[in-house]
Fold each of these.
Amino acid sequence: MRLLLAGEDGTGSLLRSLQPGLQRVSDVTVVNPYRPTRSRVARAAWRLLDPDEGRLLEATYQLRPDALLLVKGRGISPAAIGQIRRSGCRVAVYYPDNPLWRWQDAPDPLPRLRQADLLILWQERLVGLLASSSRRVEVVPFGYDDRWFPLVPTGGARHGIVFIGHWSRRRERFLRALDDLPLTVRGGGWDRSSLRDAGPGVFETDAGRLLASAQIGVNLLHPQCTGAHNMRTREVSASGALQLTDAGVDGTPLRPGTSCVWFRTPEDLRSAAESWLRRPEEAVELAGRGQVLIANDTYRSRGEQIGRLVAQLVAA
């Protein structure tokens, strides 16, 4: 199968994580349909991404792939997807956000997703909400990139608490409860915070090394992920840290008390962090059980799974 893989192809991008697995089951060509910009503001603000639909259409017409796999596809119009489908190319969209939270994407992503022959989502709840308006919907949960977050032994010389993720008011409210503990925070937007050790984002192997140094990894979900999980879910556990996380079961095998620790309030988070910092041997044991559960959930495996779904689409 000849597959055209399209999307944002930057440092730490999901496209880069999926590509090795996709290459195991298809002949992959990558195209980034977004114009480069010199503006630091534009690079940081996804709303300012400038899609070049002509680049995407030209790649489709010149390469004549059997299928196009569009990773999210911010700003790509339903008309462009329809035009590609009419050319004989099957179109699949892997959408790693919640399309019902429309502030995440511009313009409204739902018309784009409805144009696809195959829509791939990351949680079962979204499938129930979108199946009736889509041609075909499948679920592939998030994974972890084992090049950047390799499985690291859960013991060893670990220290403190690490959070990696973009700033939000909710995240700062929870992390402020830990501010006098050995906490390291890295991610975009934390320059607006007064947390003691908060700094710019780390990516790929740098992010993996930071989590691998931690005794505890905190995972704070955005509201659109409530009840489910996010990309950090498996990255924290792969890195061998004990995961303190918002509650969620949709698409994740981790469960409180057996493979992770749940919290629901900043006070819960504070209490759990203090308790597990005092019990490093028990923390290592619990983290190890979580790591075993997610060990096989690599993006190589996820990419193969997505590739097989697209191959089924082409063969149908």
Amino acid sequence: MRYSSTFRTVATAIVLACILASALVGLLHEPKHPLLVWIVLVVAATLTSSVLVLKRNPRRDGILFAICAIGSGIHIGASSADFPSSIPNWLWTIGAIGAGTLALVADAETVQSQSGERP
């Protein structure tokens, strides 16, 4: 499996678009816990953007995407959006978990293919 910069860029753009859509939904619906909703959105956008800015590292990217996906779960719990409006949240969750999983699998395959002494 190849973890390319193109895949990383496309996955990050999709997740960021879903975070932006979640912010727009948050503006239209009054969240249950407004401060928490906006903090989670800012943290998730920052983590996801840092994937694009930093040098490619599948392990780190996978961890950042996983934290972003956990933020989506927190955002769903703290917002008051019902199902049709919560679709960006679900896309955000699926996209971040999928991209993070692929990055971690690519990192594991890289480590497995390296020769050397194993403890």
Amino acid sequence: MANYREILDRSFLDKLNENYLLDLLNQYSTILNKDTISYLNDLLKLKYSVATNSYTKNNEILNHLDIYRYIAQYNIYHKTKEELEKRNILFNDDISFNENEYKILRGYLEDGVLLDITLNKDDMIAAINLYNTDLDRKRQILELNYLKEQLASMKNKKDIRLPNMSSCITDNGEEKIIYSIPYGLDKNRIIQKQLENDILILNEQINLKLNQDEKEQLEIHNYQYSSLLNFYSLCENKMKEITTNSRFEKTLVYNKNGLKFISSTSYIK
């Protein structure tokens, strides 16, 4: 019986087709019960999406069966591709391999990537990544207030002087750092200037209105993103938020039916 890597090496898009998987499924006909065989056959026929319909009986056991993983990946690929085609969303379906991951499908809007599907070697059948871009004035104002607080705090700190530095190559070929006096730039002042510049730019962004093209692109992206959430029966309120290092990013995660859904929203600065 073919192993996981062997099937992927046969090319997912060209070789892992319905007939091939039906033949593979027949090998399990004496191992799995009739209900399970029927369920897997329905997934192959694309009667419904494995992302929204799971065979609950012994589902945990199914998730570890190779045949289920192959058919589930086939189902996810084709059902998602159908949805992208229905919405006239451009996509590529070339397999790309990066470390331990195979990317099998990417959907694009004019302003960037909307979705990609990754097959990985961990316990998940696949990772479905959704990408959104949005505008959130509240986040911008919170960030602006934070930067202003940082600037006020820096102004209250004592000056930290940085010595001028230069280097030279010694006779044995090593680099030698030379600290010279008088002292150079004020580190506090450098950070203050950076903060002042960030505040100026962000303040301009808050007061800047999107032009018609930008507004339309944003609306299209928001609509298509929401549509894919609905297609996968996902609700942001039920997804777990992952802490990020930026106020202008939001990452949500949800595990379902052996799949990992990751929603990444970038907010316009």
